[in-house]
């Protein structure tokens, strides 16, 4: 973990209310693993007082041919004062950043295993850390299930495809792909596989709490191992304030320090 002033390389609207920011932070980039996050001070004043956590979406800029771990990328949606301020920050300005923070995903169990299928389940902004993960996992079989309310809110389909994933979409209104929740699509994918006994599945998921709870239940039913990344409100981001504790089978854990990634069966 390091704290530094990092220059904004790019900060523009990505899609709808979603923004894409690229930051020159090689000291953070080279240490980052999928599932970790950064805590950013968004203004030079005391408003807002607290830093804001953002999942590391990617390191480097693969789409532009830069595979060196020099930059970090984040995706964000304007939902309040903090993200509104961030959307107004310009190329060449500096951000005060702490990172990388958190534990990240353990993807060694699926890495390059020929008999294992990796299933990435993303709900809304949950795509952010999973794109980074999909680019790291070299498994032969990778499936990305992207959930959104409408077609206009489907994020990162191209990025998942470019990383070698078979991409399936679920929208609440049926405007793209499967009509229904992404967890219903997950159930369908697992049911098809259980009939053929083709591959051992492993799930990685990130998204809203109700979605993650459903993923955990489905994983238990089909006896599939799953890791989930929790989207919790945080204050300090380093485990000191206990403002982001979650209940687990072994007691309360700090989402920022012990997480944000947990084994699905451990969360109560």
Q: Specify the CATH architecture of the largest domain.
A: 3-Layer(aba) Sandwich
Radius of gyration: 18 Å
CATH superfamily of the largest domain: Nucleotide-binding domain of ferredoxin-NADP reductase (FNR) module
How much of the residues is beta strand, in percent?
35-45%
Distance between the termini: 29 Å
Query: What structural class is derived from the secondary structure elements?
Result: alpha/beta
CATH level-3 fold name of the largest domain: Rossmann fold
The coarse silhouette is: globular
* Uncertain runs: none
CATH class of the largest domain: Alpha Beta
Q: DSSP helix count?
A: 6
Mean pLDDT across residues: 91
Query: What percentage of residues falls in helices of 4 or more residues?
Result: 10-25%
Element string (H = helix, E = strand): EEHEEEEHEEHEHEEHEHEEEE
What's the number of structural domains?
2
Keywords: 2Fe-2S, Electron transport, FAD, Flavoprotein, Iron, Iron-sulfur, Metal-binding, Pyrimidine biosynthesis, Transport
Domain FAD-binding FR-type: 1-107
Family: Belongs to the PyrK family.
Cofactor: FAD; [2Fe-2S] cluster
